[in-house]
Amino acid sequence: MSAIAAENIVAALGVLGAGAMGWRMIASRRAATMSVAGGDSVHAAPPSADALSRMIETLDLVPAAVLVLDAGGRILHAGPGAWELFGDSLGAIVRHPASLSAVLGLRDGDRAEVDMMLDVPIRRAVRGQFRRISIGPGQSVVLATLQDGSERDALERMRTDFVAYASHELRTPLAALTGFIETLRGPAADDPSAQQRFLEVMAGQAGRMQRLLDRLLMLSRVQMIEHRKPRGTVSPAAIVSRVRDEAMPLLEGGPASLAVDLPAGLSDFAGDADQVVQVLLNLIENAIKYGSDERDRAVTIGLRVRQTVPAALMGVVGAGKIHGPGMEGGVRQGIAFTVTDNGPGIEARHLPRLTERFYRVEGSSARRTGTGLGLAIVKHIIDRHDGRLTVESRVGKGTAFTVWFPFGEVVSLKRHETVIDTSCPQPADPG
């Protein structure tokens, strides 16, 4: 079945469900309803609590993301499917210009379909289907069914990005491999010592390409599920234990050491444990790579865990901080992990761009060349968790990255709550 046909079926289910509960009342007053509804759609009478509540009882049984809006675009009710799929993004969806334009232009019986792209806090592709129905004399509502096309959109973007990024980043190691192969076939064909040197360099270039491909695939996987909120519960102590174990191969045989500060009694938080571990490992790996300078001095890496609020993070960073989505407000408690190093530090002009793909600090004297994707992966994981990322660095003094994860989801409305407000017919935020 095509996507369009499936969407029409979902919309029809919502409309039929609503009509089944209110059909007798609508049929007996059809003429009066149509004459009243012919006026200004935005200023149509609000629905009565009785008619709306009976309709909602049926709509909540529909396995789809269904909203009930008033004629001005204000959310009267969000079904469980809508909360499950979109959560706090519902307000941004109904306020989107395309959505508002469609709703305000509807008259009784009309339907409209629009595609919307949300960029904050994360990129989401949403298709909305709207239909206005009467539920009483001069009373009408708009039924909206929403579909999330974010994964399809992300897949298309990743296909394009992968070709662009891979062709750009793989060009250098491939050129090096090609040059050494030609040399081995020609001038170095009978020189065993030169062959060994060249083969060692070629192995390094092949490893570089493998790391790049691994990171590109990891970034793709992270982006694919970025719009899905994590459902698990994460223990800070368990996370630190895993990080210690998995970071051991990175620390062995080098000048870096890891010191952990983990207070007892920290609360669990909502998150994807594997992704949280990946964030900390990426930060520790960066500290190892970029924490040493030309003297190859010992690198001391710290991992400090504490319970705090985002406002506290704002108070400890300077002008070169990086923010996650929704920094306004920020009263939720959460767990902050801070990874520090005693390396050469990063100049302030680089800090705002650290999470860009393939961005590398100019003139870096890293122990190993990175892919430029580690912090981009960190950013997407933190966005999925509604977290925060800050960085503080002083040249010659070291760098501190702090990632903060909230304890739980905060929503603007109680789930399944019906709101009827006749005093404000204009579109409003559901909060």
UniProtKB/TrEMBL annotation:
<dbReference type="InterPro" id="IPR004358">
    <property type="entry name" value="Sig_transdc_His_kin-like_C"/>
</dbReference>
<dbReference type="GO" id="GO:0030295">
    <property type="term" value="F:protein kinase activator activity"/>
</dbReference>
<dbReference type="GO" id="GO:0005524">
    <property type="term" value="F:ATP binding"/>
</dbReference>
<protein>
    <recommendedName>
        <fullName>histidine kinase</fullName>
        <ecNumber>2.7.13.3</ecNumber>
    </recommendedName>
</protein>
<keyword id="KW-0597">Phosphoprotein</keyword>
<dbReference type="GO" id="GO:0007234">
    <property type="term" value="P:osmosensory signaling via phosphorelay pathway"/>
</dbReference>
<dbReference type="InterPro" id="IPR036097">
    <property type="entry name" value="HisK_dim/P_sf"/>
</dbReference>
<dbReference type="InterPro" id="IPR050351">
    <property type="entry name" value="BphY/WalK/GraS-like"/>
</dbReference>
<dbReference type="GO" id="GO:0000156">
    <property type="term" value="F:phosphorelay response regulator activity"/>
</dbReference>
<dbReference type="InterPro" id="IPR035965">
    <property type="entry name" value="PAS-like_dom_sf"/>
</dbReference>
<dbReference type="InterPro" id="IPR036890">
    <property type="entry name" value="HATPase_C_sf"/>
</dbReference>
<keyword id="KW-0067">ATP-binding</keyword>
<dbReference type="Pfam" id="PF02518">
    <property type="entry name" value="HATPase_c"/>
</dbReference>
<keyword id="KW-0418">Kinase</keyword>
<dbReference type="GO" id="GO:0000155">
    <property type="term" value="F:phosphorelay sensor kinase activity"/>
</dbReference>
<feature type="domain" description="Histidine kinase">
    <location>
        <begin position="165"/>
        <end position="409"/>
    </location>
</feature>
<dbReference type="Pfam" id="PF00512">
    <property type="entry name" value="HisKA"/>
</dbReference>
<dbReference type="InterPro" id="IPR003661">
    <property type="entry name" value="HisK_dim/P_dom"/>
</dbReference>
<dbReference type="InterPro" id="IPR003594">
    <property type="entry name" value="HATPase_dom"/>
</dbReference>
<keyword id="KW-0808">Transferase</keyword>
<dbReference type="InterPro" id="IPR005467">
    <property type="entry name" value="His_kinase_dom"/>
</dbReference>
<keyword id="KW-0902">Two-component regulatory system</keyword>
<keyword id="KW-0547">Nucleotide-binding</keyword>
